[in-house]
């Protein structure tokens, strides 16, 4: 059975930083495309960043230069470091793991709330 668990959310002031964690059991994240998504109030869920098994990461335009995704293979975890946070970054952030080959299975976590407010 696969479990994906996000953690690290919270409330920060504009300009602050947070590091989100995505922990997995039952699936090996280095063999997955691991995506961070977010869903703000009244908005659709959107892609923040996608990390591929070779470590290549693609970022949404709003995330470039402020967000960095990394992976710890030994711990089977993926992280999203977020800096210079803005109020518009307020959202529930989700981790998604899709094992390679793609199109067979897809796993989501329950999400972690990030609130950016003064």
Name some characteristics of this structure.
four-stranded antiparallel sheet; 118 residues; mainly beta; seven-stranded mixed sheet; globular
How do you describe this structure in short?
With 118 residues, the chain is mainly β. The protein contains no helices and 11 strands.
- Return the string of H and E elements: EEEEEEEEEEE
Q: SS-based structural class?
A: mainly beta
**Biggest pleated sheet:** 7 strands, mixed
Round the Cα radius of gyration to an integer and report it.
Answer: 13 Å
Low-confidence stretches: none
Number of strands: 11
Helicity level, as a percent range? Answer: under 10%
- For the residues shown, what is the average pLDDT? 96
Number of helices: 0
- Overall geometric form: globular
Report strand %: over 45%
Q: Cα distance, first to last residue?
A: 40 Å
Outline the structure in words.
This protein has 118 residues and is mostly beta strands. The protein is built from no helices and eleven strands. Strand 5 and strand 6 (57-59) form a beta hairpin. The protein is globular. The relative contact order is 0.33.
Q: What layout of secondary structure does this protein have?
A:
Layout: E1 3-7, E2 10-12, E3 18-25, E4 32-39, E5 46-51, E6 57-59, E7 67-72, E8 77-82, E9 91-99, E10 107-108, E11 112-116
Parallel strand pairs: 2-11
Antiparallel strand pairs: 1-3, 3-8, 4-5, 4-9, 5-6, 7-8, 9-10, 9-11
């Amino acid at each position: 059975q696969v479990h994906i668990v996000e953690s690290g959310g919270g409330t920060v002031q504009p300009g602050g930083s947070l590091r989100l964690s995505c922990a997995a059991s039952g699936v090996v994240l280095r063999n997955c495309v691991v995506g961070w998504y977010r869903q703000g109030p009244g908005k659709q869920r959107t892609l923040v960043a996608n990390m591929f098994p070779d470590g290549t990461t693609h970022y949404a335009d709003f995330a470039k230069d402020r967000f960095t995704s990394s992976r710890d293979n030994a711990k089977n975890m993926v992280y999203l470091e977020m800096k210079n946070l803005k109020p518009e970054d307020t959202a529930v952030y989700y981790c998604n793991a899709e094992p390679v080959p793609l199109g067979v299975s897809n796993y989501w976590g329950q999400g972690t709330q990030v609130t950016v407010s003064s």
